[in-house]
Structure formats: structure tokens, C-alpha cells
Amino acid sequence: MRKSMCQWAFVLAIAALVSGCCTYCQKEENVPLNTVPALVQSTIQAHTYGGTVGKVEKETTKCGVVYEVKVEGQAGQCSEIKVAEDGKLLKYKAGKDKKNHDKE
After folding, report:
1. Helix (H, G, I), strand (E, B) or coil at 26
2. Which one, of 49, 48, 36, 45, lies nearest residue 84 by Cα?
3. Which end of the chain is more exposed for a tag (fewer CB within 10 A), N or C?
4. Beta strands 64-72 and 77-84: pairing type?
5. Which is nearest to 45 in space by CA: 95, 81, 6?
6. CA 6 from chain center: how many Å?
């Protein structure tokens, strides 16, 4: 019984290590919006809600490419959008006050 528990603990530790690898080996670079894939641009435009696209970061990991976009809203709020390379929306974080958003 004790041996099988140790084996499970080992398996879980390896799984946690492997799943964390995607964020461990990461490269980020600022890119112009017009250089990202068309599907990504479409998703970004669909989620700006009248705001202005600001900084676009391309994050490359072993798991793939993700685009992180800052959007300034009409009321001065900043949102964050994360889009996979295939155009799938991964995250939408809405409406922080611009002063607080710039500190992150």
C-alpha cells in the first residue's frame, strides 16, 4: 500500500512538472497588430468593444503561440485579451482603470 502511494505521488509530481513547462520556457516580443494571423486579428477586433488596440505581445512557449493584447476602452479603462494562434479566445479580462492597469 505504501509503495503504491509513493508511486502515485511520483506520477503526480512528474505531471505537475510537465504541465508547468509551457509557462517556464517562454519568449515574449512586442509585435504590430497587422503582423498577427488573420484569425487572431478577427478575434481581437471582435472583443475590443469600441476600444483601441494598444500593445500586442506574442508569447512563444513549447505549447504554442499566444497573443496578449491590451485594449484601451472609450472610458479610459484597459482590458486584456489572450488569443491562441488559431484565433481561439483564451482569456478576456475587462475594464481595469488605466492607472492600475499600467502598474501590472
Report:
1. strand
2. 36
3. N
4. antiparallel
5. 81
6. 35
Please identify which residue in the block is written with the cell numbers 488605466: 98
Q: Tens-of-pLDDT digits for all 104 residues of the chain? A: 555 666 666 665 565 555 555 555 678 999 999 999 999 999 999 998 889 999 999 999 888 999 999 999 877 889 999 999 999 999 999 876 655 444 44
DSSP string of 33-102, one letter each residue: GGGS-HHHHHHHHHTSTT-EEEEEEEEEETTEEEEEEEEE-TTSEEEEEEEETTS-EEEEEEEEEHHHHH
Q: Residue 86's closest CA among 23, 53, 37, 22?
A: 37
CA torsion, points 37, 42, 44, 46, in degrees to nearest 10? -170
pTM above 0.85, yes or no: no
Indicate the CATH number for domain 26-102: 3.10.450.360
Domain coordinates of the chain in residue numbers? 26-102
